[in-house]
Amino acid sequence: MTETELTDLKDRLNSVSDRLNLLITQEEAYLHALGLGVQTFIKIDNESGSKVRLGYSKLNGAWKIVLREYENEIQYEDRPLDRVARGIRFHIAKRLPELRAAVIQNAKELADKIEKFLIETENTSEEVKDESDAEIRRIL
């Protein structure tokens, strides 16, 4: 390859990498705009056998799309997706629609669980109040 061809290749690779980063940034902005604030991770298969998950999580106080890596079942690093090697970014970015769907599903499930808990708690509180009122009337 000539020096000119290498320069063209470098420029092309940098250009498509910038576009890929823009895609990641736009997806992050979309998830942030949803305002759901629900940490979510999906499993990613990788060739090395280590465990990796793509997620939406708070990192240094800001919600980010992150790559979470595990070693021997112990989480050891969350890295912003836009900061991992471009080859990894490319393979992982294909899973962004799945992450978006998982965030929305997790938010729905969490809302359902919280709502069920509150209904059960309110019912229990009402029963305790009724029992207390009955006990007070009996004493008086």
Our measurement of the CA-to-CA distance between the termini, rounded to an integer number of angstroms, reads 98 Å
Largest sheet: 4 strands, antiparallel
Catalogue the unreliable spans. none
How are strands sequenced across the largest beta sheet? Answer: 1-2-3-4
Number of domains: 1
Question: Helices and strands: which structural class?
Answer: alpha+beta
Order of helices and strands: HEEEEHH
Strands, count? 4
Rg calc:
24 Å
Please estimate the helix content. Answer: 55-70%
Shape: elongated
- Quote the beta fraction: 15-25%
Count of DSSP helices? 3
Give the rounded overall mean pLDDT.
Answer: 88
Account of the 3D structure:
With 140 residues, the chain is of the alpha+beta class. The protein has one domain (3-139). It is built from 3 helices and 4 strands. The mean pLDDT is 88.
Features of the shown structure:
alpha+beta; 4-stranded antiparallel sheet; about 60% helix
Topology:
Layout: H1 3-34, E1 40-44, E2 51-59, E3 62-71, E4 74-80, H2 86-93, H3 96-139
Antiparallel strand pairs: 1-2, 2-3, 3-4
Helix pairs in contact: 1-2
Task: Put the structure in a nutshell.
With 140 residues, the chain is of the alpha+beta class.
